[in-house]
Amino acid sequence: MLAFEMRRSPLTEEQTGLFDALMASNLPGFRALVQSTLKFQSEILGFAPALRGAPQRREQAYADEDLMHAEVFTDGTALYPIVVERTTRRTFQWFRARPHGEEIVERESPYAWLTLYYIGPEFGSTGLRYLEAEVNRAFGVSLKPNYYRSRRFRELATEGTAHKLKPTENELQIARLLANRTMRELALAIKSTGGLLEKDLHRQLRDKDEDVAAAIRDRLLSADLIRSDLVVICKRTQTQVARVASREILEKSDALGVKCACGRPFTDESVEEFAYITENGRALLDASRWLTLLVVDELRRIGAPEGKIIIEHQMGGDELDCLAEVGGELVFFELKDKEFNIGNAYSFGAKIGIAKPVYPVILSTVGVGGDAKEHFQRAGLSGDSGDRQSDDYEADFRVIGASSQRAPVRYIEGLDQMRVEVEKLATEIYTQEAIRVLKRALQVASVDPFELVGAVAARVQEGAAMGLATTEERPFAPEAN
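RESULT FIELD:
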């Protein structure tokens, strides 16, 4: 998976002049791409010291910043672009976290922004931490994590009723347990029936294996998804007449004279172990909350910012299972612990129209039916339909018109494909961001033509002053065709 991260800090006019100090510092293990490229070009042209890079071309996406300095470091594994941009806007929007969303605050723009990017194979790399510390030291700043923001995500977060979820490690471990289909089916059978005799648990399994049922029971018990009581079954009527937590309670009942309706003491009746669902188990199985937990965990793994994942978003009579902001793009997940059928397809199409995501995703633990896929193809939602929606996104201080448009509906069929497909999604999003940043930084990786022409003119004048022959006067100059 391709990872993409940003660190940012405001700069004063005086601090922008410290870029040369960073370039002159010793950064073991890192090589400067732009500086090395300019030096190589200058050597080919026969100029020393190295000529400067070409001035930046202002682009629509960066209409509010002028590029002052840029470099792209590499450690052989990842790329670390660093840019200093002078701001041209008087104010910028600052997003302040609040308990029920974000507050947008207008602030006076600094003289310039310093941004360090990471483009590589992992989040939280040691190379990024090291270079971040060196940049902080060189400029006397404290870089902070920064994220692109989706306007549409912010609009949805303020509409309807939404929930944010921060699963604990214990919850995730239990959710991973329920990702096992056999284990989940047995837990669902216990929940739907109100409880089962443990001697009958194996009947709920496809292979009817008693040993497998016993092993699953033990794991469900240890995870507090189910608990076990004792039930008293009348030998005469074969009905359950009592349920207690332990055999000691039955013995006390006998001592107190409590009997079955048929007149026998409880201890003389049939006593069986009885499995029933816990409140914790019910909460995870209801609406397939365990699946939502796993998706949220995967989104956090691919760099979705804290608080930028909302679940069970109610808008009128529609519920959006999971919305996330990834790389400034709105991603919408529809989750199903069953086959996604044609009826679900009609509903999902309507939800796409409401949410307007850039990336609509269907995750089904079973699969997506052929009729549903055909429906999306006819509706122009499958494949490159040419009818896509763009999502403008923001980086706190600027609004960037995203080049990405609404992508085709993506299918994740089976939990074994979830991580692979989510990482593919992240790579697609971050690749666009990485290309945009590198195009910006590498503008200065070619020699400034004005400086080059000036250097050539100066060389000609210097040669004339020393009485050197011009090209036409040299005896071996090639003849013109």
